[in-house]
Design a protein that fits this description.
Blueprint (H helix, E strand, L loop, with lengths): L1 H8 L8 H4 L3 H10 L3 H14 L3 H9 L6
Helix pairs in contact: 3-5
Length: 69
């Protein structure tokens, strides 16, 4: 079910979503389960890589709505 959802969100995985390709699967699942907007998901993916966020950090920053700050 998660793989199907992932394929729907990132149909051209090799071409786009550069930051997402470098994240662990647990981070990716969290991104598409908690965020509907592609721009927001990509922002969190990029920040996760640049800041070295753990999955717990990513979840906390999504809950705090860091993107909108």
């Amino acid at each position: 079910k998660r793989m199907r959802r992932f394929a729907e969100i990132y149909p051209d995985f090799e071409i786009g979503a550069q930051a997402v390709r470098q994240l662990p699967w647990g981070h990716i699942v969290m991104l598409f389960q908690k965020l509907d907007d592609e721009k927001t998901r990509n922002w969190y993916a990029e920040k996760t890589l640049s800041e070295g966020w753990s999955r717990a950090d990513l979840e906390e920053n999504i809950k705090k709505n860091l993107f909108k700050r």
